[in-house]
User: What shape does this take?
Amino acid sequence: MEFNAPAGDNLFDNAKIVGKSTRRIDGPLKTSGLAPYAYERHDVAANQAYGWVVGSAISKGRIKSMTLDDARAAPGVIAVVAATEHEPVGSSNFNMAPLFGGRDVAHYHQAIAVVVAETFEQARAAAALIRTDYERAKGVHSLEKVKASAKVGKGYGGEDMRETRGDFDTAYASAPVTIDSQYTTPDESHAMMEPMATIAAWDGDKLTLWTSNQMINWSKQAMGSILKMPAENIRVDSPYIGGGFGGKLFIRADAVMAALGAKAAKRPVKVALQRPLIANNCTHRPATIQRLRIGAGEDGTISAIAHECWSANITGQGGEHGTAQTPKLYAGDNRLVASYVGQIDLPEGNAMRAPGEAVGHLALEVAMDEMAEKLGMDPVEFRIVNEPKTLPGDPSIPFSERHLVRCLREGAERFGWSSRKAEPGATREGRWLKGMGVAAGYRGAPTQKSAARVQLSEDGRLTVFTDMTDIGTGSYTIIAQTAAESLGLPLDRVQVELGDSNYPVAAGSGGQWGAASSTAGVYAACVNLRRKIGEALGIDGDQATFADGSITLGERSAKLTEAGAVSADGEMDFGKFQEDYDIGTYAGHFVEVAVDAYTGETRVQRMLAVCDAGRILNPLSARSQVIGAMTMAAGSALMEDLHVDERFGFFVNHDLAGYEVPVHADIPHQDCIFLDTLDPVISPMKAKGVGELGICGPGAAIANAIYNATGIRVREYPLTLDKYLDQLPAIA
Assistant: This one.
């Protein structure tokens, strides 16, 4: 099925199940500990051995030698696979850093060996016996040092990440009111709870990976390229994932080393990367340096805006494009948006929840507040004044649906924005300086081709098969809701099977495209099944009504069970007409903070997000995604920072004890409101993804609230108290 025109009225507009708050159908398995996560798949392959991955102790250079005899002779050891004895594995379009093999070392904790033993403890103990002699090379581990040599980055389509419109320099120079500010964001870790983990088993020349991965088909294809074998000989199975945030979009060393270890040991091998290797061996969000220049008239109308972002990566490509939201959000005839990427000798930087926009908002939305203050305007009104009618970066492109102004106005009313005092530091309660902040949010809403198989059994139960994944976002439930609605069945008559590459290829979980794409694919399969059921019963399935386990057309009606066992495949392919629109999601984010006037401690007291993201398929799980993203944004603003040891080129705080993230006690009250405005351009469901919108903006709202509370503007994230403690107002 091709979605080649905006959706008209359909069955989802009068839905009984889709759009209703529904508890996750996988919830009981997860809360009882019965959900099978990758490392716990004890039943999928007999006689599993344990692998321990050894990471490089240098960040750049060459392995001179590895002493392996003691490890091989250690108790319980079955096999040792070492880089000095193995040719480099292949690469894929989804990986930048080398994953294994050869003597060259490109980054700290690059995998250089895997030890396979009968027990986990034996593998770990034997790995400690390996002695490696290195020839160190000098590396560069500071973004500031490579900034000057950075080149214009490339977008996902290979396009240059530098766009201009009008004459920015002239317009900026002549603007009555201007700002020119620089902001920095640090390297950040995904810090998901479940480690990268894989069980690998060979059956002749066929490989099965029970792993933790967000994108099943991508990983199957990539693994074929990495191991230089046909992708059709590889099965990837990942039904439950304990967090990913983009860190599990691609094959990592756990899967590669488990596969190589299993081949050497001639038995299944399980590998879980130890926490330090997750920070240094895997991927992270790269640091950025961002410069914002805005020029406006006395009435607040922006005439010139420039946003430039510098980041760096291990290959000098694929950096953190913090300018992604700037061509979308605010009007202005004269524009410059550019992203530059340098080469740095740190572990690979790659996708982390809302790559680009998450850190880009931390700069753009603070700059907007700085400009509003210079103009003497309310920050909410300044944003509304500069609301565009069409895409600012290309005025020929209309928005599909955009309700940002409504998000800001309704958010301001609900949050009590009118009680905010514009003068910084004017609100004090005892020892606490209090302030409010606002930020707009934008995240794109792409779609990906997605397929599914639906199977109706003789007893009237429906099973959905698709390789779509659930990373804790509620995929199981919204897919079940879609299928139940389409076939007129109660939710408890629908079973969903996910994450197996033997199933039809779906969108996977990434880029905020999962919900909109995968449910459309399931709908396509259900349309085909409706037709087959109709054919079996002599009723036109396209015209009939499916409800209460029956099919009805005019005076004719039959139970679905009368059709017998029926199955159908379907695929939703999204037409090129979508390229004529800008399809995005929008939010108004509001935050109240209290800053201790004595210690500088910041406490987030309230957070509100008003979101415009099309039809909300399951408000309960969507809210969970958004408030989780808001919490993650608070971490980015206030505490998260992978500290680089520039002497040795590694992340020092590479475990969950040293890498700080927010907990429940850090944010006592959060609220999320959905406008539930339908977007017929996105899919038949008229629903957009929402999981990454929640991290786009709240961090900047926190920064703006801290300024409102204290009068201190800090432009270096995270906003830790050491950066402003000496500037706090004098204590009376």
About this structure: The radius of gyration is 27 Å. The mean pLDDT is 97. The first strand starts at residue 2 and ends at 3. Residues 514-537 form the longest helix (24 residues).
